[in-house]
Structure formats: structure tokens, C-alpha cells
Design goal:
By secondary structure, the protein is mostly helical. The chain is built from 18 helices and five strands. Strands 3-5-4 form a three-stranded mixed beta sheet. It has a two-stranded antiparallel sheet with strand order 1-2. α10 crosses α12. The longest helix has 29 residues. The protein starts with a helix and ends with a helix. The N terminus is likely disordered.
Length: 397
């Protein structure tokens, strides 16, 4: 190549300068884009959106793989539930209830803020507001996935207990189970005080019930590896009377980690209901499984009234199923309940008459039914009674 041709090309130093200028220019473009993007969407929102993407991926994998779902529920979600329970456990009232009570005020505040944002005409203000709202929704979804969401997708409790799902071919198993639960409830009732109008009387305070159930939960966690070990008290719902119109006796709020109990219901329902919500708090998501785990938790207690509550509440589910299967067998069995249990059920029916039929209950039922079906429980609210199958398969009656 001739010298003249060589001189047509820039020297090495010039190439390096051009390269440096291009690199610096690219950096400026990236920096300006990043600055503009974070003005449009705050960094905190981006973090929550990223968490939402991860949560969605985990959720989808859990749907496809029960083993993966169980792994997340046991080793990841348990830590989130534990942390939330400890963060809110020191509060003497239900934080979830307070949030629901002031929810109308929160919605009004959001609307007012939104109107101010629109009227301000400030650059990026509207987009930042929308991103903030979306990030809140995404955060609630992420909390759901990493507390209860994967629990709906894991192996069934039949598999975890190592038993097969029974087939209802006749009512003999149902009747035998009814007799087993009745006999044990009668035995417990010998040491329980009864009021003719209100039924059995719980012999201790709610705080004492909390301690007793926490002890039972720890024992159950040692016996069953699918129950997370945790000591955390349930919360009394202040508006329990009004909550009764929804026919909801308790609820676990995943976003606060609290087990909330409607204490307006008769005493004999409280230990079992509390154990049910505490089962949710310890990773048991499906309702029928939480019902049976509540029974297993109560059976780990040395307290007579807690065991009585479990026997009687489970008996109600089995009796209802027996009624559908064989009305004559149900009718004959009802005459064998004994004075105390008959009094308990009569007092409950008298109590519930005020709340039995109302619009709020219908709406609540429809919402709960939709939620359960969305989590893969095709039976909806009927899944609550599927606890009977677990009882038949597992209990030695």
C-alpha cells in the first residue's frame, strides 16, 4: 500500500478520541433516558413492579409444579408470614380491621389526591401517581403469592398425611364417624359448665385461649412437618356483632399476617375457629384442609374445652353430610346426641336466627365463593365441608 493511501486514514490517537466521544455520548443518552424514566415512574415503583414480575413467575411455576409450590410455602412463604405476624402481633387490636374501617377514607383521599394531581398540570405528576397506585396493587399481589398463594397449589393434605381420598358409597362411614365424634364430645362435656340459653361456657379468657392454642400449634408443628412452627396470637374483631351478618366467623388477612376472630359467636365455636385461622397463618391455604388441620391442632391440646370444641365443630360438618346422604340415618342419630350437645345446638340456632337471612350474607357468600374458585377450589364455599373426607380417611374411628 502506498504512503499516500496510508495517510488517508486517521491515526490511532484520533481513533481513540472518536471512540471515547462515542462512548461518552452513549453514556449521556443512557443517563438522560434513565433520568427521564425515573421522573415518569419513581424508582420505588420500579422495584415493586420487578417484585411483581418475580411473584407472577413464582405463582405460575407453583401452578405447574406442586412440589415447587410446597417448597416455596414451607421455606419462603413461612418466613414472610412469620415476619408479618411478628410485626403486627404487638398491636393490641386488629390492624386489618382498622384498615377496612378506614378504607372509605383512604379511597376518598386517593380520589382527592388524584384530582389535585390532574389539576396541577405538573410534568410527570399524573404518570407518577398512576405508577404509585399500580405498585400498591402489585405489592398486595406479591404478598398474597408469598404468604398463601402457593399454598393453594401444593400437594393435597391427603398426600401429606399419606392417606387416600375416600369414596362415599354408603352412609355407614359417615354414621360411624358421627358416633365417634359424639361419644368424645359427650366425654368432654362432663367437665364443662352449660348455660341453658347460651350453651357451654368457655372456662378461661381469650388471652388464655391464645396461650393454649399456641402451645397446641407448636406440638402440631413438631408432629406434622407441613405446619409451620409459630407463636402468634389471634386478634379479636371489635365489630364482631356486625361481622356476624356476613356469616364469617374468622379470617386470616395475608397482608397483615393476622388471624382475626369473630368473638360474637357462641363459646364452643371460638377455639376451633381460632385454630382454623391459625392454620392459615401457618401455611394451610385451602379451606377444607384448614378445617381439618384446626381439628388436628386442637387434638394436640391437653385442654378439655378445646378438644370439645373440635369434636363438636367437626361433628356439625359430618352430620350435614350425613343428612344429604341418608336423611333417615341422620334423623335417628340426632336422637342420640345427649342433653348437653342438644342444648348446645339449640342455643346456637337461637343465637343465629337474627343473622340467618340478610343481603350482606348473600354478598359475602358470593365474594368468598368466587375467591375460592379463583384459587382452584372448584367446589367454592362447599369446599369447607370437604373436611369430612379428610376425617374419614385419617381418623381411627
Amino acid at each position: 500500500m502506498s504512503e499516500e493511501k496510508i495517510n488517508d486514514y486517521p491515526n490511532i490517537t484520533e481513533c481513540e478520541n472518536i471512540s471515547d466521544e462515542n462512548t461518552e455520548g452513549a453514556k449521556k443518552v443512557k443517563r438522560s433516558f434513565r433520568e427521564a424514566f425515573f421522573k415518569f415512574c419513581p424508582l420505588a415503583c420500579v422495584v415493586f413492579f420487578a417484585l411483581g414480575i418475580i411473584s407472577f413467575a413464582v405463582h405460575m411455576i407453583a401452578v405447574a409444579s406442586p412440589d415447587f409450590a410446597d417448597f416455596i410455602t414451607k421455606y419462603v412463604a413461612s418466613g414472610v408470614r412469620f415476619t408479618l405476624a411478628k410485626l403486627t402481633g404487638w398491636i393490641p387490636f386488629s390492624l386489618a380491621e382498622m384498615i377496612i374501617i378506614i378504607l372509605p377514607l383512604i379511597l376518598v383521599a386517593l380520589i382527592v389526591i388524584g384530582i389535585k394531581v390532574v389539576r396541577s398540570n405538573k410534568k410527570y405528576a399524573y404518570s407518577r401517581y398512576i405508577c404509585t397506585l399500580l405498585s400498591i396493587i402489585v405489592t398486595f399481589y406479591s404478598l398474597f403469592v408469598f404468604t398463601l398463594g402457593t399454598g393453594y397449589q401444593g400437594r393435597t393434605l391427603y398426600e401429606k398425611l399419606g392417606v387416600e381420598k375416600p369414596k362415599y358409597e354408603d352412609s355407614s362411614d359417615l354414621l360411624a364417624l358421627c358416633e365417634y365424634l359424639r361419644d368424645n364430645a359427650k366425654e368432654c362435656a362432663k367437665d364443662i359448665t352449660f348455660n341453658e340459653l347460651t350453651g357451654s361456657v368457655m372456662p378461661y379468657s381469650r388471652d388464655e385461649l391464645n396461650d393454649l392454642l399456641n402451645d397446641a400449634c407448636i406440638k402440631a408443628a413438631e408432629k406434622y412437618d407441613f405446619i409451620s412452627p409459630l407463636r402468634s396470637n389471634f386478634k379479636h374483631v371489635i365489630l364482631s356483632h356486625y361481622m356476624t351478618y356476613t356469616h364469617i366467623s374468622g379470617v386470616y388477612t395475608y397482608y397483615t399476617g393476622e388471624s382475626n376472630i369473630n368473638t360474637n359467636f357462641p363459646d364452643y365455636t371460638l377455639p376451633y375457629t381460632a385454630a382454623h385461622e391459625m392454620a392459615h397463618q401457618r401455611g394451610i391455604a385451602p379451606e377444607n384442609e384448614a378445617n381439618f388441620v384446626a381439628y388436628l391442632i386442637c387434638m394436640e391440646s391437653d385442654d378439655n374445652y378445646i378438644r370439645y370444641s373440635a369434636y363438636l365443630n367437626l361433628l356439625e360438618y359430618v352430620q350435614s353430610t350425613l343428612y344429604k346422604a341418608d336423611k333417615s340415618a341422620y334423623s335417628a342419630f340426632s336422637f342420640t346426641l345427649g342433653e348437653e350437645i342438644y342444648l348446645e345446638f339449640r342455643a346456637y340456632n337461637a343465637f343465629f336466627d337474627e343473622y340467618r337471612q340478610n343481603v350482606v350474607a348473600n354478598v359475602s357468600q358470593a365474594v368468598n365463593d368466587t375467591y375460592l374458585k379463583a384459587q382452584g377450589q372448584s367446589a367454592g364455599t362447599i369446599s369447607y365441608s370437604l373436611v369430612v373426607g379428610l376425617a374419614i380417611a385419617y381418623l381411627d374411628y
